[in-house]
Design brief:
This protein is mainly α and 355 residues long. It has 11 helices and no strands.
C-alpha cells in the first residue's frame, strides 16, 4: 500500500537514512586516514563540480603538483617529494572529496524522489531538509579548513579540523535519529526526566570528547607524549601559556591532556550510568543499551591508550576514529530508546543488594 506524507512511518525512508549514515561513517574514517597520511592539503583548490575529475594526463599531474609545491607544507615538510609520492597523498584527498560528493548525491536524489512519491512522513521532511543543508555546509566548512593551511601554516588549523569533524558527526547522529523515527513511527511518550537528561548529558559528553579528539588530531598531539598514564613522566607536560587561550586549541601537551582527562570523566560517568541502569532494572532493552554504551567507552579508551603508546600508526589511528563514531552511535541510540520508553521505564524498582 502506498504511503503518503501524512503517514507515521516508512521503512524504505529509514533504510535510505541508515545507508547515508553508513556512508558518513566511512567518510569519517577516510577523513582520519587523510589526516594521518598528511594528504589534506594535496589539493589546493575547491572545485565542487570540476574537481570530481582527477588529473587525466601528465600535464594535469604536473599542474597539480606545481600548485602543491607553492604552499608552505611542501617547502617546509615535503621538500624534494617526487611526483609519485605526491600522487600517493593526492589520491587520499581526492577519494575523501569524491566520497563527500557521492554522499551528497546519495542523500539529495532519493530525498527528491521520496518527496515526489509522497513517502516521507510529514514530521520528518523538515529534518531531512535540515540534514541536506548541513551536508552542503559541510563542504564549505571543509574548504574553510583546508584554506587555513595553504598560506601561513604547514597544516590545517586544529579548531577548523575539529569543527569539520564535529559537523560530520552531527550529521551522522541526525541520520541515525531520523532513521529510527522513520522506522518506528511517532512516539507520544513522556519518559522520566532524570533518565532522559542523563542519557542526553552522556551523549553530549561523548560528542565533546570527539571534538577534543579533533583538536588532538589537528595539533598532531597523538605523536608525542606516548607514555601512559603520565605524559613524559609528568601529570601534565609543559604548556606554552604564552599563546593565551589558544593553548587550549593549539598546544600539543594541553590538548592531549584535556582529551585524556575527559576520557576518564566519560568512563566514570558512563559506568555509573550503566550501574544505575542495572540497579533500577530498566525495561524495554534500556539496560542493555546503557551497558552497550559503557562497554563501547571502555573499549574505545583501551584502543586510545594502545594508539597513543604506539605513536599513532595509521591503522590504529583510523580504528580509533572509527571507534569514536561507533561510541557516538551507541550513545545516540541509547538516548533515542530512553525518550521512546513510553513511561514503562522500570520493571520492579531499584536493586539494593550488592551496592
Amino acid at each position: 500500500m502506498k504511503r503518503f506524507i501524512g503517514d507515521d512511518q516508512n521503512r524504505a525512508v529509514a533504510i535510505w537514512l541508515f545507508a547515508c549514515a553508513a556512508l558518513v561513517f566511512i567518510m569519517v574514517v577516510v577523513g582520519g586516514v587523510t589526516r594521518l597520511t598528511g594528504s589534506g592539503l594535496s589539493i589546493t583548490e575547491w572545485k565542487p563540480i570540476m574537481g570530481a575529475l582527477p588529473p587525466m594526463n601528465a600535464a594535469d599531474w604536473d599542474e597539480a603538483f606545481q600548485k602543491y609545491r607553492a604552499i608552505p607544507q611542501y617547502r617546509e615538510v615535503n621538500a624534494g617529494m617526487s611526483l609519485a609520492e605526491f600522487q600517493g597523498i593526492f589520491w587520499w584527498e581526492w577519494a575523501h572529496r569524491l566520497l563527500g560528493r557521492l554522499i551528497g548525491l546519495a542523500f539529495a536524489l532519493p530525498f527528491v524522489v521520496f518527496l515526489i512519491l509522497r513517502q516521507i512522513p510529514r514530521r520528518l521532511i523538515g529534518r531531512c531538509a535540515a540534514l541536506l543543508a548541513l551536508g552542503g555546509l559541510q563542504g564549505l566548512i571543509g574548504w574553510w579548513m583546508v584554506s587555513s593551511g595553504l598560506s601561513e601554516r604547514v597544516d590545517v588549523a586544529p579548531e577548523r579540523l575539529a569543527t569539520h569533524l564535529g559537523l560530520a558527526l552531527l550529521i551522522f547522529m541526525g541520520l541515525i535519529w531520523t532513521g529510527l523515527e522513520a522506522w518506528n513511527g511517532e512516539s507520544h511518550s513522556r519518559p522520566p526526566v532524570v533518565w532522559s537528561r542523563s542519557a542526553a548529558v552522556l551523549l553530549g559528553a561523548v560528542f565533546f570528547q570527539c571534538l577534543l579528539g579533533g583538536l588532538v588530531a589537528g595539533a598532531k598531539a597523538g605523536f608525542i607524549y606516548t607514555d601512559w598514564p603520565l605524559m613524559n613522566g609528568m601529570v601534565l607536560a609543559p604548556v606554552d601559556w604564552g599563546i593565551g587561550g589558544l593553548a587550549f586549541l593549539h598546544d600539543q601537551a594541553l590538548v592531549q591532556f584535556n582529551h585524556r582527562i575527559w576520557a576518564y570523566v566519560l568512563l566514570i560517568g558512563g559506568t555509573a550510568y550503566a550501574v544505575q541502569a542495572w540497579r533500577w532494572r530498566l525495561a524495554e532493552g534500556l539496560g542493555a543499551a546503557a551497558f552497550a554504551v559503557a562497554a563501547a567507552l571502555w573499549l574505545q579508551a583501551l584502543l586510545g591508550i594502545a594508539t597513543l603508546m604506539s605513536a599513532t600508526p595509521l591503522w590504529l589511528g583510523a580504528l580509533h576514529q572509527a571507534g569514536a563514531a561507533l561510541v557516538l552511535a551507541t550513545a545516540t541510540l541509547n538516548l533515542w530508546m530512553v525518550r521512546r520508553s513510553q513511561g514503562r521505564l522500570f520493571t520492579s524498582g531499584p536493586r539494593t543488594r550488592g551496592l
